[in-house]
Amino acid sequence: MRYINHEDVAVRTKKRLTKNLLLKGVFAAATTFGLIVLAVLLYRIITQGSGYLSLDFFTSFSSRIPENSGIRAAIVGSIYLMLVVAPVSMFLGVGTAIYLEEYATKNKFNDLIKVNISNLAGVPSVVFGLLGLTIFVRYFDLGISILAAGLTMSLLILPIIIVASQEAIRAVPNELRDASFAMGATKWQTILRVVLPASIPGILTGSILALSRAIGETAPLVVIGIPTILMFMPDGLMSTFTALPMQIYDWTKRPQVAFHDVAAAGIIVLMALLIIMNSIAVFIRNKYQKRY
Amino acid sequence: MKSVKYLAMSTILGSAVFLAACGEEEAADSSNGSGSESSELEGQVRGDGSSTVAPIMEAIVEEYAAAQPGVQVSSGVSGTGGGFEKFIAGETAFSNASREISEEEIAGLEEAGIEFTEVELAFDGLSVVVSQENDWVDYLTVEELKEMWTETGEEKTWADIREGWPEEPIEYYSPGTDSGTYDYFNEVILEDQDIVRSATLSEDDNVLVQGVLGSPNAVGYFGYAYYLENQDTLRAVPIDNGEGPVEPNNETIESGEYAPLSRPMFTYVSNAAIAEDPAAADFIKFAIENAGDLSEAVGYVRAPQDVYDEDMATIEELAGE
Prior knowledge:
Chain A is mainly alpha-helical and about 290 residues long.
C-alpha cells in the first residue's frame, strides 16, 4: 500500500490548479489591456505628430498655418513655470513635513492637519485654479503672470510633496536620531545632519513626480486665464506666458485636422519631458536609497 | 551626499544656461526686426475671450508680431462670457466675443467705470449639420428648427418635425452653454426656451463633429469653419427664413442672406486703453485693417468694407488722431 494515492491527489489538485491558471490569465489580461491602450495611444500620437517634429517646431511660435506652428513660447513658459514651482513647493512641502514629523507633538489638532493634507491631495485641480485666480491674480494683484501661475501650481502639488516627504522622514530609524542626541546634538543639528541626508532620496523622488504632475496640468492655467495666443518670450516672473499643455489644448480644439497633428507633436514633446523627469526620479531612488 | 548636491547644482545651472540662450536669441530677433517699421512701439496688450474668434485673433497677433516686434500682444481663450468677466475686472484691453455684449455685462462695465467700443472683425455662419447618411432633410425652416431644439417633455422623432421623415429619435449635439455660439443660437432660434434635455453639450466643437458623424439621425450646429473642414462627411442644412432655403457659404453669410444664423464676430476694446496706450491703439487699428483677409484665411467670412471703415474711424477718433 502506498502512503499517497496519486490518482486521488491529481483529481483533488486539478480543480485548484485550473483555478490558479484561470486567475493568472485574468490578471495577465488586465495588465495587457492597460499596455495595449498605452501602445495604441503612443502609436496614434507618434504617427500623427512625428511629421511635425523638427528643430523649427522648437524655435517658432504658434501660427495660423499648421506647418509654421511651434512651441517656442510654450516650452520656455513651462520651464519658467517650473523655476517658480520647484523652489516654492519644495521649501513649503519639505518644511511642513519636517515640522509635522520632527517638531509637532501628537495631539488632536496636529492629527487634524495631517488628515486634511491628505484630503487636499484629492481636491480637483480646477478648484486650485479658482483659488489662484482669487488670491494671487486678483487679491495680491500679481496679474496673469508666471509668478501667479507658479504659486497656484505650487499649492496644487504641495500635498503630494508633503506626504512623500513625511514618509521619507518617517522611514529614518529612530536609532539614528537617538545616537545623534546622545552625542549632544540639538534637534536642528540632528535634522540637518542626520535626518535630512538619510531621507533626501525619498523627498527628491516624491518632489520630481509632483513636479511632473505640475508640468502636465492644464485646468488651473485655463481658470487663471493664461493666454494661448502670444508671440513673445517671457522676460521675467511678472511676464505673461503660455505653457505647453495650454498650447496643446488650444490646438486640439481647432477645426483644421492638421492642427490636431501639430498637437500630437506637442504631446510627444510633453511626454518626453515627463519621461525624462520620471527617469531622474527612478535614478535617484535606485542610486541613493539606503536600507537600514 | 555630495553627488546629490552635484546633481541639483547641475540641473539648476543647466536650465539657467538654456534660458539665457533663449533670451539671447530673442534679443537678436528684435534687433533684426527694427528698421523694417518706421515707428517702433513698445508695450503690452492683453485680451481674452471667445474661442470661436481665437483663430482670427491668432492670425492677427501673428502678423502684428512681425510688424511691431516691440509690442507684446497676448490673448486667451476663456470663452465669450469668461472673457467679459476679465474685461469687467479690468484685466484685459480687448475682449473677443462671438455674440453681442449682454445687458448684464454692460451693467458690470458701467459699474466698473469702463467705457468700451464694439469692433466687428468678421462673420460666421452658424451651420446646422447632419451626417451625409441622412438623405431626407432637404432644408429646415426657422420654425422647424425651433420645434426641433426646444424641450417639450417628450422624445422627438424626425417624423414629428415634418411628415414623411423617418420615425427615428433625433440625436442632438450642441456647443456648451458657456460659449457665445450657444448664446447666439439661444437668442435667435430657441428664444430663451430650454434646449432639449437629451442634447449632448460640449465646449469642444470637434466632439460635436464626431457625434454628428456617428449617426444618420444626429443633428448639430457649430461655426462655419468646422463645417468647411468636414464637408466631405457632413452636410449643411439650408435654412428657410421665409424667403426660401439658403445654404451657408461665403456670399450668403457676408450679405446676411443666410439669416438668422449669420452672425458677426466682435472684439470689444476698452476706450481708455485706446486713448492712453499707443500700442493698444496701433494693434486694434492693425486688426481692423487686416481682419478681412485674415479671417478668410482661417475659415471665416469677411465683413462688408464699410463696417471696417466705420470701426476704423471710431478707433482713430478715440486715439485722438
